[in-house]
Specification:
about 550 residues, Porin, mainly beta, 24-stranded antiparallel beta barrel, single chain, 4 helices, about 5% helix, two-stranded antiparallel sheet
Length: about 550
């Protein structure tokens, strides 16, 4: 009988777990089993007013369960996933059930080896990051072998080889990589007691993919390298990484043979009551995938950090979110957080915290080559505006039971770039939020948000009300209602109400909800997914042990 790698690994895990359980029964083993479970499901109603289409199954579900066994130097685990069928907004290619993630890891004497699936990151991720973001339906887990080794005190090396997860299958390309980091203060005795901590690192990643293109002669091996430095001194921190990738023609960059590059710089300072952060990056043709024909979020080898604030308020986070542009982008961000001292006129009895943030992203200033097969970029100039976000947040505790937050944001949003639209141009918007929390006693609290968005473009003005009542430690009740009252089309001036009730007991959480979800885009860290309009009841259950 011939066993697939997945089946062999699961068989070995089952045998080992059974064997160690037997030893535990004899008092010879101290192994532990931990895990977690989550289920999200929705019953769908058609709603022609908001564009919610009928769902044939009526009821859709996403769920997963992790089971991890640890015993001394050994650990192993599996994750079962079930999509019956995939909820709207998630890629339908997840449809079905299976064990897409399973691993076994052994650690001994500064040496670690993992076989099966694993997540990993080199530096900032500009040439390699394997991770999961379940809210986006994003998972590019590696399947293969990973080795980590501490060569000397202060010198850490890791290498890997494998293929990437592609829903319930694997991508065609093979990814290989090695990363090393030197902690100078650990390696050199004379630096051990220095207040300045210095780290150097470097990475190399390559992919192999067969060239079967009938038109182009495509490189089958594509390599990328990166170097980085990090310095910490007191409240100061500095990090910079430069990445370079050889020519990598793909469907995303229209099969040009231009080399790629990226530079990321971040510096910050913090002390009691004050925090300052400045960041900048240049990205040029850095789309890097194990399949050159892949689109959207499929089979990404690298991660390009987004230098935009990750908003949490409903209107700021969901109406005009921004996604990193891998083909070319110059971005920068700065923020200052200052806490006015308690007892001062502005600080009051409990102090006042002020956060000011500015972020912007522009295209590259580029010139198309005479051949028409690529471009030349001038990094000393900014290209067209993609996105701007200026925001101010003030947090203040008025009394022991009452605290509030004031928030203002101004957006400049290139909809053609950020959402892939055609000739829809720029959106200019202002957003205001008043949030307050009132604690009636140790168990009962009310939190509310009043939000407004004004724009003369796109869908016009919006208003949102959020209310959440908590009865600690077990219950919460919440409602969110969006209203597109300024839509130029009067028939589209609709309400999008959602109500929820939740119960929490130890590590178990159950939430029931019902309402309307507007169509839009949902983003985390510069990675986005399209969310279609929906109407119906939802249930979410999560637990861990």
């Amino acid at each position: 009988m011939k066993l697939h790698f997945n089946q062999l690994l699961l068989l070995l895990l089952a045998i080992f777990t059974s064997y160690t359980a037997k030893l535990r029964g004899q008092g010879l083993n101290n192994g532990e089993i931990h895990g977690n479970f989550q289920l999200d499901a929705q019953y769908y109603n058609p709603d022609s007013a908001i564009g919610a289409q009928p769902v044939p199954e009526k009821f859709l579900m996403n769920s997963f369960a992790n089971l991890i066994y640890t015993n001394g130097d050994f650990s192993a685990g599996v994750r079962f996933e079930s999509y019956l069928n995939t909820m709207l907004g998630f890629d339908p290619r997840y449809k079905g059930t299976g064990f897409p993630y399973k691993f076994a890891t052994f650690n001994r004497d500064n040496f670690s080896i993992t076989v099966g699936n694993y997540y990993e990151q080199f530096g900032s991720g500009m040439i390699f990051r394997s991770y999961e973001e379940r809210g986006l339906g994003y998972d590019n887990a590696m399947e293969g072998v990973r080795v980590k080794y501490t060569l000397l005190k202060g010198i850490h090396i890791k290498g890997l080889i494998g293929k990437q997860r592609y829903y319930f299958d694997l991508g065609k390309g093979i990814v290989r990589g090695i990363d090393g980091e030197v902690a100078l203060n650990e390696l050199v005795t004379e630096f051990a007691e220095k207040k300045t901590k210095i780290f150097f690192g470097g990475s190399f990643v390559s992919k192999y993919e067969v060239d079967q293109d009938p038109i182009y002669v495509l490189p089958e091996n594509v390599g990328a390298w990166a170097g980085r430095v990090k310095v910490n001194h007191g409240g100061w921190s500095f990090f910079s990484e430069y990445a370079h990738k050889i020519n990598d023609p793909s469907s995303v960059n229209n099969y040009i043979y231009k080399k790629g590059g990226g530079l990321l710089v971040n510096t910050s300072y913090s002390q009691k009551g004050l925090g300052i952060n400045l960041s900048g990056k240049v990205i040029d043709n850095m789309n890097f995938r194990s399949d050159r024909t892949a689109q959207n979020n499929d089979l990404l080898i690298n991660f390009l950090p987004a230098l935009t604030r990750q908003h949490t308020y409903n209107l700021a986070a969901t109406i005009y979110p921004y996604a990193t542009q891998p083909n070319g982008e110059m971005a920068y961000q700065g923020d200052i957080t200052y806490t006015i001292k308690k007892g001062s006129k502005l600080g009051g009895k409990y102090g006042t915290t002020v956060l000011v943030n500015y972020a912007a992203a522009n295209g590259l200033d580029s010139t198309t080559l005479a051949s028409g097969l690529g471009y030349k970029a001038d990094y000393t100039k900014l290209g067209k505006v993609y996105y701007k976000d200026f925001n101010v947040e003030i947090q203040k505790k008025v009394s022991k039971p009452l605290k509030f937050t004031l928030f203002y944001a101004n957006f400049v949003y290139n909809k053609d770039v950020a959402q892939g639209k055609v000739n829809e141009g720029f959106v200019y918007a202002n957003i205001e939020v008043l949030e307050f929390t009132y604690k009636f006693n140790d168990k009962h609290a009310l939190r509310m948000e009043l939000q407004g968005l004004q724009t003369r473009q796109d869908m016009g003005d919006w208003a949102t009300i959020v209310a959440e009542y908590t009865i600690s430690p077990n219950w919460f009740f919440s409602t969110v209602n969006q209203y597109n009252y300024g839509n130029p089309n009067e028939d589209s001036r609709l309400l999008y109400p959602i109500g929820q009730i939740g119960f929490i007991k130890n590590s178990t959480r159950v939430t029931l909800g019902y309402g309307r979800q507007r169509a839009g885009i949902f983003c985390i860290g510069g990675i986005c997914r399209v969310v279609p309009a929906s109407n119906g009841a939802t249930i979410s259950i999560s637990s861990s042990f």
